[in-house]
Each structure stands twice: as structure tokens, then as C-alpha cells.
Amino acid sequence: MTTTARTARPHVGTALNRVEGMEKVTGRARYAFEHSPDDLAYAVPVQATIARGEIRAMDVQKAHTVPGVIAVIWHGNAPRLAPADNAELAVLQSARVAYRGQYVAVVVAENLEAAREAARSLSVEYAGEPHDTELRADHPRLYRPDQVNGGYPTDSEHGDPDAALEAAPILVDATYSTPAEHNNPMEPHATVARWDAGGLTLYDSTQGASSVRATLAALFTMPPQNVRVIAPHVGGGFGSKGLPLAPVVLAALAAKHVTRPVKLAVSRQQMFAVTGYRTPTIQRVRLGANPDGRLTAIAHEAIEQCSTIQEFAEQTTTPTRIMYAAPNRRTTHRVVKLDVPTPSWMRAPGETPGMFALESAMDELAIACGIDPVELRVRNEPDADPESGLPFSSRNLVACLREGARRFGWADRDPTPGARIEGRTLVGSGVAASTYPVYRSPSQATARLEPDGRYTVRTAATDIGTGARTVLTQIAADALRTSPDRVRVEIGDSALPPAVLAGGSMGTASWGTAVVRACEALLAELDRRGGDVPADGVEAGADTAGEVRAEERFSRHAFGAQFAEVGVDVDTGEARVLRLLGVFAAGRIINPKTARSQLIGGMTMGLSMALFEESVMDREFGDYLNRDLAQYHVASCADVRDIEAAWIEEDDPHLNPMGSKGIGEIGIVGTAAAIANAVHHATGIRVRDLPIRLDKLLR
Fold first, then answer.
1. Is 547 a catalytic residue?
2. How far apart are CA 149 and CA 152, in angstroms?
3. What is the per-residue pLDDT across 460-499, written as a single tens digit (0 to 9) for each?
4. Nearest to 432 by CA among 306, 539, 561, 518
5. Rounded to whole angstroms, how far apart are CA atoms 134 and 339?
6. Which of 20, 351, 387, 665 is catalytic?
7. Are residues 594 and 651 in the same domain?
8. Do 121 and 260 fall within a single domain?
9. What is the pLDDT of residue 9?
10. Residue burial 109-133, b: 16+ Cβ < 10 Å; e: rest
11. Residue 649 pLDDT more than 60?
12. Cβ distance 70 to 310 under 8 Å?
């Protein structure tokens, strides 16, 4: 992006306060569960108590005796749905049970208390079958999926990695594992569903109103225009609300059955079965290098799980394909179908667990070569994308490493593990790289000059707490050559021009492109009219499908460097993160205030992954044991004393009209590896299996 373009855009790049801030802090912002149409009923789901088998009988009589119960819906009386590509959406369509926690019935009542009581009293008889819920590297049913999430090839290979690894003077060969992790947004999934003569209206907690509309219309065999999804405010998602899942289908199905509006909220405990999670991984990383640290070979192999009813293969090894130069390379993914819920998106799926393994292995290689970990990464910087050979649109990983090292005081680090002790605390520091792809998807928008001289911009984008309204206001203001206070942005409604979901760190890039083009079209129309504005205003629209399809071929990625300082108590093994610093290269930062929030939020989530998060499977019952926030631990502000996110100036003209890259996910990538590397530096103990618990350090 040129200096001239920057001068012409005074609002993009400024720390504008959230335009909906007062609505949120005063409680005027209404979330899905807070909508209450007339004649509202309440729905409470019933979940399977076996991990595999079939429903033999459903005794609903006792449930119907509870005062206020309207209906008990199960596969024997549920409305029929059209077949779906995602079998998780075939709610109450069969007697089969594919995993413990799957929906087997739903109770609808006049109030929530009655629905809960009746749901507890429902008697379900099962024919249970032997189940398998254990992911292991030697599982006999491992297979190669056709592709992995994002449409990436399952495997990739260049050169002869086996021969190069065998001949390498320095070899790192290690296996790393990450546990199942569950998205726990502040607002649990919730839907209010209402049918009327016009079709179906949903107030839904979703990351994509347009995608929910398309999916529900197909399931209920109706035109998309007969479904309206309204999501003005969403209390976080982290990917779990990116795709339509069983709860929204169940709410719509229940409302159709009772011919009344129905409200359904997923409890925190239920979320551990029906709203997706990050698959556990087992990853083998092999790095071959010369004594100077230059890589000769990389092999990264991942093993994951999915359910028996729906394949989801996370793209765990894909970041390894673009990170470092090596002439011989291999990445693979293998999956096993288990009697478990279907994994789905969780913040930076693939990159997060994959970069933990790769960046931990790079730290081990640095030690084996006797080279500083920052310098090792710099020495293996590629000139072009190692996988595709395409030029990078911009790549400033080295700049992030250098700037991060300067800010962190890395030069003063004694590389000897266990050398620094303060009282009864061993102190160490670690580094890891971050990366995330740059995506842009087709979206539409309209821009309108109102009779009062203000502007209204509309697109079906979703703000999941990231500040989408605010940055789109800034983008529109600059494109219209006006001030933000003269622009109103309307989002969160499938009745607006279609927009891609808020996921993959592509929201702002995709929506922003559509908004810029719509605003440019409006200005062109105003110029054509010569200032003649009719009484009802002037509107113009844009569809970016053609522009996105025609974009030049570049390898587009954001990069970053994470630095961590960790203290480990020598008596208890308790690890505390003392400092976290992330330095990122993510194109032009549209709003420094919201950007810092997103980056620090991601880094905090990465800290949580390193030290706390772990969904523990009970193999006997096929269920996760720690299904609430009392036992599923997440990091809070007390778990890091000093956390800082910074970025370097990066001009990239090959992205979008704003020159921006997504920042919602890159903050989590690499953080866990930086912390694990710091723990090794502090203690000399290499933890390859997350999370880093006390027992792993007390030896």
C-alpha cells in the first residue's frame, strides 16, 4: 500500500472506540437468548448416555405428567429433515447413537423449569454396543482422508526426505501430542426459533448468519429467502459457532413440531458433546540439518480423530509446508473414526497444534546444533513458498524475530538450561514462530446515502466480539471520504447482502473489500448524478466474487514471533508465565485498539493451551470427564504478569483494498511452543505432551 493511499485514509489505522461499546456496557445489546417473542416455549435437550448403540424404547409418559410440558420429541415423532452433507445435523432422525452426549430427544414446555424436570424424567432404553474412544498411534483403523480442512492436500512430499534424514549430520526425531480441547465462548450456543407464514426466523448465536440460513433452508426443504437468521451480537465463538450445528437444528425442529416460538440454550456441560472441539493429535516431527543448522529435511506426520458419522480432518501439518527452507520435505495426516463427537474448528485449527510440534522441534534442533533459537530460524528463512514455489506477497518473520528479540532482551539470555534461579524459582525463556494464512472470500455489501446526508452500509457480517462493526465503520468512512460518525454499519442479519462467516481470520478482509467496493460504487453514482440526490436517497452495491477469483497468485500469510519467560517452582513444579511478548507482521493494522485485544486474547488462549486446557476422556463410558469450567481449566489475567502484543509496519499491495491480514487467530499460534521451550530452558525438562502439568516437571 502506498503512502498516498495511507494519506487518503485517515481513519483506518486509528484507535477508534467500539461503535457499539455503550450498548454492551449498559446491557442494551441483545444476544440470541434475550429475544422473547410472544407465546414463547422453552426446549431442553436430552442426551445419549451410551457411546454407541441404538435406542430400543422411549418412555415419555412420566415426562408428560410434568405440569407445563407441551411436547416430547424424539426420532419416533420428530419432523423429517432432508439429507445433509453433515450427518451431525440429522437430529432425531434415527434410533442410532454414535457417541455419548448425542441428542436423542428434546422436551418443550411452557417454562424452563418444567422442561428441565421433564427432560430429567425421560426414560430411554438402549441396546449398547462395544465402543472405541481411544486415539493411539498404532490404531488399526487409521486411514488417509481425501483432503484436510481448508481443502488442502492430505499429504505433500518433495525430494527424498527418508534418505536425507538418514544422511543428516544432526537429526531431531520426536513425538509430540496435544489433547482434545473444547471451545468455551463466554456466551454458550443459543437459538430462538419461530415459524410463521413467511417461513423460519432464527435469533442465533452464530459466526455466520448467511451460512446458517443456507443450511437450515436445505434441511427443511424451503427457499433460502424463507429463512432469516438474526445475530446482532455474539458473545464469542472461537470457531465453535462457525458452522451450523445440532443445537440450531434442534431448536428449529422443536418450534416446527409445536407450532410455537421455542428458545433453546446449550448448557456448558452439553457444549462438550454437541458444539465441536479441537481434535487430539499425535505428531512425529523429524528434522535433518547440517552442523550450521541449515535444514536438509523436514518430515511432519499427524494422527487425529473424527467421529464415525462425520469426517473432519484438521490441517495440522500444513504450516510446516511454508515455514522453513529444506530441499527434502514430507507432511502427512492420518485419521481414525472413533465413537466420539465430531471435532470441528477451534481457533486456528491446524496451525495451533501443528506449530506446537514444529516449533518445539526447532528448539530441540537449535540445542543439538549449539545455535541460538532465533538465529536458527533466520538461517532457514525461504526465498519463496517452499511448498508451491509461489512468491510471498510479504513475509516479515525475520523482522518479527529481530524486533521481538530486541524488545524482550533476548541477547542477555544464557542458553544453558537451569542456569538462572531466583530464590526457589527456576527461570527460563523461549521463542517460537507464528503463522496464519491470509484468506479472502466473496461477500456482498450495499452503501447508501440517506436523505439526511448520513451513510448506511449493510452486509451480513457477524461481530463475535472482535470489533467488526467498528473496523467496518472506519473502512467505510475512508472509502466515502467522510467521518465515522456519519456512517452507520448494519450487520448480523441474513436479510442483508450475503457475507462470509466470521472465521479463518478472513472476516474483515472479505467484508471490508465488499464495503470498499460498494462505497466506491456509491461515489461513482453520486458523481454521475452531478450531486442530484433524490428525496429517498441513493444506494449502490457490490459483489466481490469476481475480484476474489481473479486475484494474483501469491503465497499469502501473516507471521509473528512469540517470546515467553517462565518461572518454575523447584519444590512444587508449578510453572508460571512471567512475560509474554508477541510481535506480528499482519499487513496494515486497521484499529490498534481492537487489534491489540485480539492478539493478546489469542496469546492468552495459547498460554491456556500450554499449561491448562485438556479434555479428559473416560474410555469406559466414552465421555469427557471434565465438562465444565470448574474442571476444564482456562487461563485468566492472573496467569501472566506481563503480556504485550506489538506489530511491525508492513505494506502488502497484494491482499485487499485495506492492505490488511487477519489477526484473530495468529496470536494463539506458537504461544504454547514458546512456553514449552521456556520451561525446558528453565528446568532442562522437555515436555512434548501438553498441557505442562506439575507431574511432568517433578522429576
1. no
2. 7
3. 999 999 999 999 999 999 999 999 999 999 999 999 999 9
4. 561
5. 9
6. 665
7. yes
8. yes
9. 66
10. bbeeebbbbbbebbebebeeeebbb
11. yes
12. no
In this predicted model, what pLDDT tens digit does every residue of 59-82 receive, in sequence order? 999 999 999 999 999 999 999 999
Tell how strand 152-153 and strand 227-230 pair up.
unpaired
In whole angstroms, give the CA distance from residue 270 to residue 623: 11
Strands of the sheet with 53-59, listed across from one edge: 96-97, 53-59, 123-128
Distance CA 569, CA 573 (A): 5
Q: What is the DSSP letter of 548?
A: H
Q: Taking every pair of C-alpha atoms in the chain, what is the biggest distance, in angstroms?
A: 79
**Full residue range of the structural domain in which residue 571 is found:** 350-439+552-699
- How far apart are alpha carbons 612 and 606 in whole angstroms? 10
Q: Domain of 214: which CATH number?
A: 3.30.365.10
CB 306 within 8 A of CB 313: yes
CA distance 79 to 51: 25
User: Which residues are CB-neighbours of 697 under 8 A, at least 6 positions away?
Assistant: 568, 573, 575, 679, 683, 685, 687
Closest CA to 351 of 373, 320, 376, 377: 320
User: Whose CA is closest to 281, among 302, 260, 261?
Assistant: 302
Q: DSSP 3-state assignment of 399?
A: helix
Cβ neighbors of 125 (< 8 A, separation 6 or more) are 55, 56, 57, 58, 59
Distance CA 392, CA 668 (A): 22
Q: Say how many C-beta atoms besides its own lie within 10 A of residue 25's C-beta.
A: 10
511 and 652 co-located in one domain: no
d(CA 282, CA 280): 7
Instruction: Please check whether residues 79 and 106 belong to one and the same domain.
Output: yes
pTM of the model: 0.97
DSSP state, residue 171:
E
Let me know whether 229 and 363 are in one domain.
no
Rounded Cα distance, 200 and 676, in Å: 49
Q: Tell me, yes or no, whether 463 and 558 share the same domain.
A: no
Instruction: Give yes or no for a contact between 33 and 186, defined as CB atoms under 8 angstroms apart.
Output: no
Dihedral of alpha carbons 685, 690, 693, 695, sign: negative
Cβ contacts of residue 147 below 8 Å, gap of 6+?
153, 154, 313
Distance (Å) of CA 537 to CA 223, 478, 487: 31, 20, 14
What are the cell numbers at 435? 503463522
- Cβ–Cβ < 8 Å for 208, 500: yes
Q: Give the pLDDT band of residue 224 (cuts 50, 70, 90).
A: very high
420 and 396 inside one domain? yes
* pLDDT: which is higher, 638 or 156: 156
Report how far residue 231's alpha carbon sits from residue 247's, in angstroms, rounded to the nearest whole number.
15
Within-domain flag for 304: no
C-alpha cell at 156: 505433500
Best CA proximity match to 430, nearest among 235, 297, 565: 565
Q: What is the CA radius of gyration of the chain?
A: 26
Please give the C-alpha separations between residue 678 and each of 197, 421, 452, 609, in angstroms, as whole numbers. 61, 13, 58, 15
**Contact (Cβ atoms closer than 8 angstroms) between residue 74 and residue 62:** no
Q: Is 492 left (phi over 0), alpha (psi -120 to 50) or beta?
A: left
Burial of residue 451, with CB atoms counted within 10 A of its CB: 0-12 exposed, 13-18 middle, 19 or more buried: exposed
Q: Is residue 309 part of a domain?
A: no
Amino acid found at 692 = I
Q: Which residue pairs from 163-166 have beta carbons closer than 8 angstroms and sit at least 24 positions apart in sequence?
A: 163/328, 164/288, 164/296, 164/297, 164/327, 164/328, 165/286, 165/288, 165/297, 165/299, 165/328
pLDDT digits (tens, 9 = 90+) for 651-664: 999 999 999 999 99
The grid coordinates of residue 21 equal: 461499546
Please indicate, yes or no, whether residues 627 and 672 belong to a single structural domain of this protein.
Answer: yes
Question: What integer best gives the mean pLDDT of the chain?
Answer: 96
